Amino acid sequence: MNKNRGLTPLAAVLMLSGSLVLTGCNDKETQQQGAHQQAPEVGVVTLKAEPLNITTDLPGRTAAYRIAEVRPQVSGIILKRNFVEGSDIKAGTSLYQIDPATYQASYDSAKGDLAKAQASASIARVTVNRYKPLLGTSYISKQDYDNAVSTLQQADAAVVAAKAAVETARINLAYTKVTSPISGRIGKSAVTEGALVSNGQATALSTVQQLDPMYVDVTQSSTDFLRLKQELASGALKQENGKAKVKLMLENGAEYAQEGTLEFSDVTVDETTGSITIRALFPNPNDTLLPGMFVRARLDEGVRSDALLVPQQGVTRNPRGEATALVVGADDKVELRTLKADQAIGDKWLVTDGLKAGDRVIVTGLMKVQPGAQVKVQEVDTQAQKQPQSEAQKS
Question: What membrane topology was assigned to this protein in its record (predicted)?
Answer without folding.
Answer: Lipid-anchor
